Amino acid sequence: MKVRDLIKIPDFMELKKFLIFEPHPDDADIFMGGTIKWLTDKSKDVTLVTVTDGRKGTYDPSTTEEKLKLIRRKERERAGKVLGIKKILMLNYEDLNLPDTEKLTMDFLRIIREFKPDIVFTPDPWLPYEVHPDHIKTGISVARASFLSPLPLILKETSPFNVKWISFYITQNPNTYIDITETFKEKLKAIETHKSQFPTEESINFIRNYLTLKHGEYGERIKVKFAEAFKVLSPLHLHTNVDALNM
């Protein structure tokens, strides 16, 4: 028996409630949209939390922040319908101006305790070479909130809740793969609704080609056509655990 065998990584099909955090209105669609559609097709309880309003996500100097944030909200809603997401919570933090991680952690902790998920998803904040502050702050704050959630003396006005699992997407160290062969087309359709992010044929073709190749690579690892990859850990892995990287 090895150390990694002490905590068995779960089968997503055994779980019921899924809470997904995304820094911007398109992140979950791009990096785990196939899995989201796979879950909603199986009538799982999926809640998506969009942290920022995406108001600065453009290379077009002629637009305005106010105009873009409204466009991105509508794109988020349309893409959510494609993927079957019934609950979307938009926190409307200003894009590229998130508060410090201490405040974010407490805000996310309230959400986790309210929704009581079986598993929480967030971008991997320890992705090598990641420089986007919204991704780093969101990832680390969700991880900390998940770890702190069972402690009753933190945010005493809310009830403690034991998060069993946290799943990191956009990760270089996956330990879980989900077959998205049947939902890959819907994933691409959802991404295509984000026209503000992919305004040209060249840009949408690039993301289509990249995802086809990348999800094909992941699929080869589990002998399917397309797959998405995750690093799934228990909160027990998130403190003084020298084996977490290799779990």
Task: Fill in the keyword field for this structure.
single chain; 247 residues; alpha/beta; Rossmann fold; 6 helices; 7 strands; 17% strand; globular
Query: Looking across the biggest beta sheet, what order are the strands in?
Result: 3-2-1-4-5-7-6
Mean pLDDT across all amino acids: 97
Percent in helix: 25-40%
State the CATH class.
Answer: Alpha Beta
Provide the CATH superfamily.
LmbE-like
Task: Identify the overall geometry.
Answer: globular
CATH architecture title: 3-Layer(aba) Sandwich
Radius of gyration, taken over Cα atoms and rounded to an integer in Å = 18 Å
Q: Total number of helical segments?
A: 6
Query: What is the ordering of alpha helices and beta strands?
Result: EHEHEHEHEEHHE
Low-confidence stretches: none
Instruction: Kindly identify the CATH topology.
Output: Rossmann fold
- Share of residues in strands: 15-25%
Give the total of beta strands. 7
Major sheet summary line:
7 strands, mixed
The structure class reads alpha/beta
- Total domains, how many? 1
How far is the first residue's CA from the last residue's CA? Answer: 14 Å
Provide a quick synopsis of the model.
By secondary structure, this protein is α/β, with parallel strands linked by helices. The protein has helices at 27-41, 65-83, 101-115, 133-148, 184-192, 201-221, and strands spanning 17-22, 45-52, 87-93, 119-123, 165-169, 176-179, 227-233.
